[in-house]
Structures are given as C-alpha cells and as structure tokens.
Design brief:
- This is DOCK2 protein.
- InterPro entries: DOCK, TPR_DOCK.
- One of its GO terms (molecular function) is small GTPase binding.
- Residues 3-150 form the Dedicator of cytokinesis TPR repeats region domain.
- There is one protein chain.
- By secondary structure, this protein is mostly helical.
- It has one domain (1-188).
- Helices cover 74% and strands 0% of the residues.
- It is built from 11 helices and no strands.
- The chain has helices at 2-13, 17-31, 43-53, 56-69, 83-90, 95-101, 103-116, 120-135, 141-155, 159-185, 191-201.
- Helix 5 packs across helix 8, helix 9 (141-155) runs antiparallel to helix 10 (159-185) and helix 10 runs antiparallel to helix 11 (191-201).
- The longest helix has 27 residues, at 159-185.
- The protein is globular and about 50 Å long.
- 22% of the residues are buried.
C-alpha cells in the first residue's frame, strides 16, 4: 500500500502537476459559471447565443475530456481531487456534454482499481460531493439514468471490475433518488412527507 503511494507521488513529480491541476479547475470553473447556463435564459436569448457562439460549455467540456485521457499513468495523481470538479461538470443539464464526460468516472474507477484492487477513494469522494451538488440544486432524473447506463456499458468491457461497478452504480442511483426526493419535498407543506424523505435519506 505504501509503495503504491510512493510510486503515485513519484510519477506526479516528473510532470507539472500544479499546471495540469490549474488547467482542469479553471476549465471547470469556466463552463459552470452562471453566464453560460443557457437553460436559464429566455428562448429568444438562448437561440441568439446558440446561433452566434454555440454552447461553449460543450466545447470546453470536450477539451477537458480529451486532456484527461492524455494524462496516462498520471491520472492517479488527480484521484480523488478531481472527482468533485468533474462531477460538477457532468451535472450541467446538457445531454451531449453529459454523454461525453460521464465516462471519465469509469476511467477514474478503473485507474484506482488497477493500482489498489478497489476504488474506495473515488467512491467516497463522489458520494460526499453528490450530496453537496444536489443540495445546491443540481442533478435530475435524466442524469441518474445516463449515469447508470453509461457506467454499466463501460464496465461491461471489463469483467473483473463489472460487479464492483454495478454495486457502486446501484448505490449512487439509490442515493441520488433519495436526494432528489428530499430536495423536492423541502418545499412541501406536509411535515410527514418531509420527515419520511429525511428518514429515507438517513
């Protein structure tokens, strides 16, 4: 276990870790800024921006995806640190962006699994961050369905990890369902409904 971390940090030292880290965080901050969330605009403003600039979130999101896969063995240096930012990006309600970037999660799991035989650091981090993101208003039914289908499909090509991924996806799906229910009933006047969702979430 100690040799794994020694090798991990040795690999991190032979390339500019801080530079890559800054790139990913800056790119995610750019595409998640309020001024680019087109779904919040009027139909006319949405069309005007799309016609003139396109959806810049997709452009940068695809670049983040491509750069991630260029990291090679250095990916491990960004787990679990980049789990939260990548999650925030995948929660943007744009279907093509989600389809392009959710597979990064599987690559993170596979990377950690190949080093340690499990992906507990990734799992713990995504559960922690998912709670925070959904509470902040992000996430929806479509995301939950894409998350499940994409990760299951990715894992189907790796029999050795498939059962672990399937259990993880089931766990996250169940948590997301309860978080979304809880967020919905927070505005419900029924105390019984709020209490029931709170108990389920706990």
């Amino acid at each position: 276990y100690n040799s794994y971390f020694s090798q991990k940090y040795y690999n991190c030292l032979i390339f500019n870790l801080q530079l890559w880290n800054n790139y990913f965080h800056l790119a995610v901050a750019f595409i998640t800024q309020d001024s680019l969330q087109l779904e919040h605009f009027s139909h006319a403003k949405y069309n005007k921006i799309q016609n003139k600039y396109g959806d810049m979130r997709c452009l940068i999101g695809f670049a983040i995806r491509d750069m991630w896969y260029k990291l090679g063995q250095n990916k491990i240096c960004f787990i679990p640190g980049m789990v939260g930012p990548i999650l925030e990006m995948t929660l943007i309600p744009e279907v093509e962006l989600r389809k392009a970037t959710i597979p990064i999660f599987f690559d993170m799991m596979l990377c950690e699994y190949q080093r340690t035989g499990e992906f507990k650091k990734f799992e713990n981090e995504i559960i922690l961050k998912l709670d925070h993101e959904v509470e902040g208003g992000r996430g929806d039914e479509q995301y939950m369905q894409l998350f499940e289908s994409i990760l299951t499909e990715c894992a189907s090509q790796y029999p050795s990890i498939f059962n672990l991924v399937e259990s993880f996806v089931s766990l996250v799906k169940g948590l997301l369902e309860k978080l979304l229910d809880y967020r919905t009933v927070m505005s419900d006047e029924s105390k019984d409904n709020r209490m029931s969702c709170t108990v389920n979430l706990l």
